[in-house]
TrEMBL record:
Stated name of the protein: ATP phosphoribosyltransferase regulatory subunit
Cross-referenced Gene3D superfamilies: Bira Bifunctional Protein, Domain 2
Gene Ontology cellular-component terms listed: cytoplasm
SUPFAM superfamilies assigned to the protein according to its UniProt record, in alphabetical order: Class II aaRS and biotin synthetases
UniProt xrefs under Pfam families: tRNA-synt_His (PF13393)
Amino acid sequence: MRPPRAETRAEAARLVARFEAAGARGVDCGILQPADTLLDLYGEDIRARVYTTHDPLRGEQMLRPDFTVPVVQMHMAEGAEPARYTYAGEVFRRQEDDPERASEYIQVGYEVFDRADPAGAEAEVFALFSEALAPLSLRAATGDIGILTAAVQGLKTTERRKAALLRHIWRPRRFRQLIERFAGRAPVPPARLALLNDPDPMAHAGPMIGLRSEEEILARIAALKEDAAAPPLAPEEVEGLDAVLAVRDACPAAEERLRAIARDLPAIAPAVERLAARLEALARRGVDVARLDFEASYGRTSMEYYDGFVFGFYAEGRDLPPVASGGRYDALTRQLGQGAEIPAVGGVIRPGLTLALGGAA
């Protein structure tokens, strides 16, 4: 049973006041957001998860799916640094796969834009959330998308292949299919094989129908041929990726395992050092990192704009979405900053869930 809206708003106000006491400035964002920004970031796939409408003057609009994108836009356009923001309001998500989940709910957030001490900022956000949610006895999970990203960027393969893998890090099944194909383990589909072996593929083409020009089609065929000629991923590199993805342990043990993997996969070493710095900063904030879970794959299905540290808080034994989640999103500031960028980390809490579970302090 969902708490009454008035109670949820009061709980949201209490959380916002807590974040303001930590130094955040309260901000608000429009419920209607320009669709082109979100489509540029996430592609057409986002339409399956959001509500859209059309305005005769402003064009296609989307009901706000979260606050992070508009807050980043606001900060990059007019914010001073360092900066801390908090907010509360409705967000809207389509739930066609799970009609029992709320498609409209209130979200409270805390965001930090600070380039001086990235590890300290991550520890600050996580510790604030952990303290606010402590009365609920939730399970905390952490991960780091940056470690897997570094592993992909360090592969000895073409830039085109690496770009494809990076694009699909958030789609684990497609990511695995690409790994199998690039490693030469998956058979080439017959239609593609016929295309690659055809010396003049456009000779048998019918009339040009659709939006792609002949030049675009030829460029795509050339890219497929270039990919087919590239050597397969080395078995040891695939094993290294699999080893990274398999890391799931308490944070200190996970760090130790990743350091061992870095001896054979040196591209991840800087990301592992960032993990170590974060654990030290968390310990200084009073977080018991020895009991904190780390999973290298965590966040890959639901946190598309995060590119480093990720975290979530869950009610064990309850069929509920995360009560809170967040992470680092430096790349998002680059995409929305028109040439400017700043390290940024933040997270959101669902006050309706904290009330349903007993209320945060």
